[in-house]
Structure formats: C-alpha cells, structure tokens
Amino acid sequence: MKTGPLALTLGDPAGIGPEIVAKAWAELRGTGPAFVAVGDAQALASAPGGVPIRRVTTTDEAQRVFGDSLPVLDLPLKAPVVAGQPSSAAAPAIIQWIETAVGLALRGDVSGVVTAPIAKAPLYQAGFGFPGHTEFLGELTQSATYDGARGPIMMLTAADLRVTLVTVHEPIARVASLLTVEKIVNAGLVTAQALRRDFGIREPRVAVAGLNPHAGESGQIGREEVEIVEPAVRALRELGVDAAGPYPADTLFPEAMRALYDAAVCLYHDQALIPVKMLDFWGGVNVTLGLPIVRTSPDHGTAFDIAGRGVARPDSLIAALRLAHQIARTRAA
Is residue 18 helix, strand or coil? Predict the structure, then answer.
C-alpha cells in the first residue's frame, strides 16, 4: 500500500465542506499528510479563506504541488450551488466524487479516502438508495469477509476512546428487536481485527455494552443481556477475542474504565456517540472498519446554517486526515 496522498471528497458543496477542506489544507500544507480534493474546483476557490487552487490530473502531481496550493481533481457541478441551500441537483456530482475517490483507493493511487459531510435528504430526493456514506462505501468496495466477519462497521474515535456500533441509524424503539447474537459477534470480530490491522494493537481488548439500565440487573430490568449480549460475549471469547461484558453503559466510559479496553462495542447510536462528543466534541473521527480501503470522515454534519460564513472549524476533518494517514501507514507496515 502507498502512504500518500489521501483522496478527500468535497461532501455537499452547499455545506461547510469546501470551507473546512480549504482550512485543512492551510493547516496541513507544511506538515502533511498530503491530500487531493475530489470535487468542484470553483466551489473550493470560492470558499471562505481564499486558498490557492491547483487543478491536477494525477495523484503524483497532487503530491508534488501540495505544499504550494490545494490540489483538486476537478469534477465540476452541473449548476452552481448557494451556500446553506442544499439541492438534489448536486447529488449526481456528490456521488461521482465518492465513487472516484474510492476507485483511486482501490487502484492504489491514494492511500485512503476521507469524506467531507453529506446531507442525506437531497441525495434521497435524487434517488440515492443507501442510508449513508458507510453503506455506500460497502457496496462500492464489495467489502470482503475477514476471518468470518463482514464490514462495514462504524467506529468513532475521540482522544483515547474508540467505540463501534452494532446498530447505527435506527429508531430507538426498534433497537432491541434488531439485536442478535450474530450481529454483536460480527461487530466484535470486525472491531478486534481492525484494532490489530489498523491500529497496531497486537492483543486487543474489547468491551461490550449492555442495553438496559445496570446491564439488565441479571434479567430483572430486561432480558436482552441474558439472552443476547452475554451469549455473544461468550462466543467472541470462543473465537479468540479478549471480550468482556456486558457493562452498564453509564459506567463504561469514565477514564478509569477506558484504560481497561481498546474499543467498546455499543448497541445503538447515541450510546456510542454521546461519550465521544462529550470527550472531544471538535476532534471526533468516524472510521469505517471492515473495508479493503482506508476511510475516515469528520464526526459532524454539513452545518448548512453556518455555511459560507467563514466560521466553520476544520478540527475534526484535520483529525480524520491524520488518522487516515496513520491507519494507512500501519496497514503498510
């Protein structure tokens, strides 16, 4: 595998994507990691900050010019966009940018893909058939089975915390009915494999959260722990994973507990994302596990309400670029 540059998709051009991409380049131009933006060059040239833009045709060229200008693989929009006003007319370009970046990664022309935020509603209006980035990337890469487990699995990182999700964008009323032993085991296996392959942890420790208050109190406050989570933890151990749990979610994330595991498998969206955002609201990163390519993204949305105003913070995108570079180097090693 290569160790650079990365491909960075522009996200929804009516959101803060162009602005934070430009700001990330301004921050990283001297130190790296180098990246090539995949998107509309004019949208980047018009972003607050006024960074120099260089249209490129190859990733090698992007690597060479990165210190002097923001390299862009220019795939223009069919119509101009207005900051803060998302439109389904931009959907074909947004999808093309993602497909192009993934193609570059699959061919080995870039070391990984970082994606700026997209808004799902305009894509759905244009006929996009996936819940979000993660599922679309799984389809584009035909994510392989690794040692009996299948991605993609979503991981969020912040400071010293890593969490992965068994269910993702599901209504809370459906979560309990969607949980199975097999799904938890799969998430635990993919998590352990990624900790070894992507983070260089030789003997990863995985904690599994419970669903109910106090992890069910031995079945007195819900049976999911007894009937689903505990059997899943036993199965993970039988498969060679150093897994423990289920742990009550309200005691799983303090600093003293975080020292006891390398990643926590969480059962639903907010169980995982609330501690991540409490720990480091500006620096959280979304990592897609179980793919044949490296993919990260900032842990925030398109922020249409502040788009074009010059106030968006690039912290999470910068963290995502640095982590993608780190994972690529770890895989290469």
Answer: helix
The overall pTM is greater than 0.90: yes
- For residue 213, give both structure tokens: 């208050």
Number of domains in the chain: 2
Question: What would the pLDDT profile of 244-283 be if each residue is shown by its tens digit?
Answer: 999 999 999 999 999 999 999 999 999 999 999 999 999 9
Query: Does the N-terminal peptide bond of residue 171 adopt cis geometry, omega within 30 degrees of 0?
Result: no
Is the peptide bond between 131 and the residue preceding it cis, with omega within 30 degrees of 0?
A: no
Q: Please check whether residues 173 and 277 belong to one and the same domain.
A: yes
Domain span holding position 207: 144-290
Backbone angles phi, psi at 105, to 5 degrees: -70, -40
pLDDT digits (tens, 9 = 90+) for 196-247: 999 999 999 999 999 999 999 999 999 999 999 999 999 999 999 999 999 9
Query: What order do you get walking across the sheet with 6-9 strand by strand?
Result: 53-55, 70-74, 35-39, 6-9, 113-115, 295-298, 285-289, 153-158, 161-165, 263-266, 205-209, 242-247
Clarify whether residues 31 and 133 are in a common domain.
Answer: yes
Q: Do 139 and 150 fall within a single domain?
A: no
41 and 120 belong to one structural domain = yes
Residues 19 and 137 in one domain: yes
Distance of CA 87 to the CA centre of its chain: 24
CATH of the domain at 27: 3.40.718.10
If asked whether residues 96 and 42 sit together in one domain, one would say yes
Task: Give the pLDDT band (50/70/90) at residue 1.
Answer: very low
∠ Cα 299 286 168 (to 5°): 95
CB contact at 8 A, 319 and 27 = no
One-letter amino acid at 248 equals P
State how far the Cα of 68 lies from the Cα of 54, in Å rounded to an integer: 9
Tokens of 326: 């780190």
Nearest CA among 35, 4, 256 for reference residue 111:
4
